């Protein structure tokens, strides 16, 4: 494996060899990782003006400032390396599996008389992990089977030989009901316990045939020695094992150790089902969604998902069944696209799961959309509004202790925050803490601006406050000549009362109503936005005042520092060299000396 770095303009000099390429932007951040059978051809295709690449790809190419490549022996090795790099760095233009679950494992501990128990944390030094399992139910089924077939201890005792020899342990209830053979008091040899564990390991790997053969041989042995009770007990365990296998049997038992991966897609996403089959039994089935980033082909998406899922579920499959043909074979990956027989049926089963998953996702998306529509329709009904309030704006003031009076406006579109439309306001025309006058000023400024820019007015204006603030907002709207063009309400905090202009009495919406919860959320967001702005402003002003009290530091210097470092905290943490790049070496020395003198004050 060999790594090299190039400038984008040198892409034509890349080798005609399998490998992985990495694109870095101006900040030297990794933005994309790709694999290629021929690095020269693949990387050059991004910079070919006649290639007809899509807008997203062109946007990415404009950001590339440096290319790094790693040569490998085969395209399959490139796939594996690409997967590891994406998993580690999460570049913004690479496809990510949309799956935030932490999967359960079964841990076989590294100790005397090892235990087996479920966990979601993988700490390799603790023992051997089996899984991950696609669901807790699937994991519990395997664990119940193991505990039914073998007597594996569940206690946490230290069963080192010298601890057992001390004789301080006593057998517990698990021993008396037959779930443990009492290794804690020397009633079971570790060599016998380890023999059972070898069969457990085969079951955890999906190899049920080894355990079945063992139980058959032991049952035959006890029957020949006329030990019929022991033979009957083993017969019951064999039946349990066969019943478990029958429930998971999806194909002929002769089909051993294969993976099945199928894909269906639409314009924005791909939906992949991944199955692992051993001895005809389905041991893993997992659905994932991949969001398209650069209009990737189904082949590229399927290979990406396959490699990541095989890695995630620790697959050692000898063969992979796919529902689409690869454009060309990949050395090291044994891919088959069956046309008939049991393998074809496995493809159909996997594809059925992928299609169902796609349908399920679409239904869920529709339900979420319906919920948003339902809430704003309910709000329209509760407030008797002429139109559905799919555009709501809310205002709040903040002037704690009468200093730095500010206001905020937050915007919600279709019931969701539209953060880019949020606005902060410095109060300009009001002297002292006057909430009513401040509200009139900011409402007037907001809608005067919208009128001048010809932008659409909201379908509902919410004022955080009671009748006084609401009346002030109405005055501003009347002066602009837009009063009556959009509904405006006030919401009082104490009893969540809703006031309409001109009405003496408020209305009350059911406390459990989704529409009231939406209004509360909008009001709370406006309050949070105003308070945050006010605190930042007070902090900056306080620090700026302190700075200008230092001989040699004036207002313009303080402004440059705040403009560059963005926050007081970052100025206090900056080194002398960093400060010097903004205000010069002499002033930097003055400021650093002042910081040292006032540290901890």
UniProtKB/TrEMBL annotation:
Q: Which residues form the GIY-YIG domain?
A: 16-95
**CDD domains per the UniProt record, alphabetical:** GIY-YIG_UvrC_Cho
- GO MF terms on file? DNA binding; excinuclease ABC activity
Task: Give the location in the cell.
Answer: Cytoplasm
Which InterPro entries does the record cross-reference, listed alphabetically? GIY-YIG_endonuc, GIY-YIG_endonuc_sf, GIY-YIG_UvrC_Cho, RuvA_2-like, UVR_dom_sf, UvrABC_protein_C, UvrC, UvrC_RNase_H_dom
- Give the GO biological process terms: nucleotide-excision repair; SOS response
Give the UniProt entry's GO cellular component terms: cytoplasm; excinuclease repair complex
Identify the keywords attached in UniProt to this record, alphabetized.
Cytoplasm, DNA damage, DNA excision, DNA repair, Excision nuclease, SOS response
In terms of superkingdom, the source organism counts as: Bacteria
Q: Where is the UvrC family homology region profile domain?
A: 264-477
Complex and partners: Interacts with UvrB in an incision complex.
HAMAP family on file: UvrC
Matching entries from NCBIfam families are given as: uvrC (TIGR00194)
The UniProt family comment states: Belongs to the UvrC family.
**Which purpose does this protein serve, as stated in its record?**
The UvrABC repair system catalyzes the recognition and processing of DNA lesions. UvrC both incises the 5' and 3' sides of the lesion. The N-terminal half is responsible for the 3' incision and the C-terminal half is responsible for the 5' incision.
The name this protein carries in UniProt is: UvrABC system protein C
Species of origin: Algoriphagus aquimarinus
Taxonomic path: Bacteria, Pseudomonadati, Bacteroidota, Cytophagia, Cytophagales
């Amino acid at each position: 494996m060999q790594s090299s770095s190039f400038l984008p303009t040198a892409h034509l000099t890349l080798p005609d060899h399998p490998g992985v390429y990495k694109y870095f932007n101006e900040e030297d951040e990794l933005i994309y990782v790709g694999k290629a059978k021929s690095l020269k051809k693949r990387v050059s295709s991004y910079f070919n003006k006649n290639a007809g690449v899509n807008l997203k790809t062109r946007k990415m190419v404009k950001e590339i400032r440096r290319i790094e490549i790693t040569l490998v022996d085969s395209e399959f090795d490139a796939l594996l390396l690409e997967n590891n790099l994406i998993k580690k760095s999460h570049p913004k233009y690479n496809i990510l599996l949309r799956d935030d679950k932490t999967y359960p494992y079964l841990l076989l501990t590294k100790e005397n008389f090892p235990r087996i128990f479920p966990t979601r944390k993988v700490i390799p030094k603790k023992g051997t992990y089996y899984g991950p399992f696609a669901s807790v139910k699937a994991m519990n089924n395997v664990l119940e089977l193991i505990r039914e077939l073998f007597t594996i201890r569940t206690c946490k005792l230290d069963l080192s030989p010298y601890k057992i020899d001390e004789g301080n342990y006593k057998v517990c209830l698990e021993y008396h009901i037959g779930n443990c053979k009492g290794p804690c008091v020397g009633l079971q040899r570790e060599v016998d316990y380890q023999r059972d564990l070898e069969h457990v390991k085969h079951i955890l790997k999906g190899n049920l045939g080894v355990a079945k053969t063992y139980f058959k041989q032991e049952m035959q042995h006890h029957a020949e020695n006329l030990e019929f009770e022991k033979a009957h007990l083993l017969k019951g365990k064999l039946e349990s094992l066969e019943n478990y296998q029958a429930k998971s049997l999806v194909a002929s038992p002769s089909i051993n150790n294969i993976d099945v991966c199928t894909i269906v897609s639409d314009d924005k996403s791909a939906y992949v089902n991944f199955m692992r089959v051993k001895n005809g039994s389905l041991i893993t089935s997992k659905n994932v969604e991949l969001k398209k980033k650069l209009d990737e082909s189904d082949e590229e998406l399927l290979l990406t998902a396959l490699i990541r899922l095989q890695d995630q579920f620790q697959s050692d499959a000898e063969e992979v069944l796919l529902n689409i043909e690869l454009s060309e074979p990949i050395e090291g990956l044994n891919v088959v696209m069956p046309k008939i027989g049991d393998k074809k049926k496995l493809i159909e089963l996997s594809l059925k799961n992928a299609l169902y998953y796609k349908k399920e996702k679409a239904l869920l998306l529709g339900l979420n959309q319906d919920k948003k529509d339902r809430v704003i329709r309910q709000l329209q009904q509760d407030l008797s509004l002429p139109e559905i309030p799919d555009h709501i704006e809310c205002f709040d003031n903040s002037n704690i202790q009468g200093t730095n009076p500010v206001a905020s406006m937050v915007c919600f579109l279709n019931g969701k925050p539209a953060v880019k439309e949020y606005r902060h306001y410095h109060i300009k025309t009001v002297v002292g803490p006057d909430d009513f006058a401040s509200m009139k000023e900011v409402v007037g400024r907001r809608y005067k601006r919208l009128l001048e820019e010809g932008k659409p007015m909201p379908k509902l204006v919410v004022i955080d406050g009671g009748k006084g603030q609401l009346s002030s907002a109405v005055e501003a709207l009347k002066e602009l000549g837009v009063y009556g063009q959009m509904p405006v309400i006030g919401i009082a905090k104490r009893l969540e009362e809703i006031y309409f202009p001109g009405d003496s009495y408020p209305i009350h919406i059911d406390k459990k109503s989704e529409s009231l919860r939406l209004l509360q959320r909008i009001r709370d967001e406006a309050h949070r936005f105003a308070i945050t702005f006010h605190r930042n402003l007070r902090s900056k002003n306080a620090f700026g005042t302190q700075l200008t009290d230092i001989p040699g530091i004036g207002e313009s210097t303080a402004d440059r520092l705040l403009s560059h470092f963005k926050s007081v905290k970052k100025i206090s943490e900056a080194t002398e060299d960093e400060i010097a790049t903004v205000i010069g070496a002499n002033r930097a020395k003055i400021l650093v000396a002042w910081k040292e003198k006032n540290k901890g004050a």
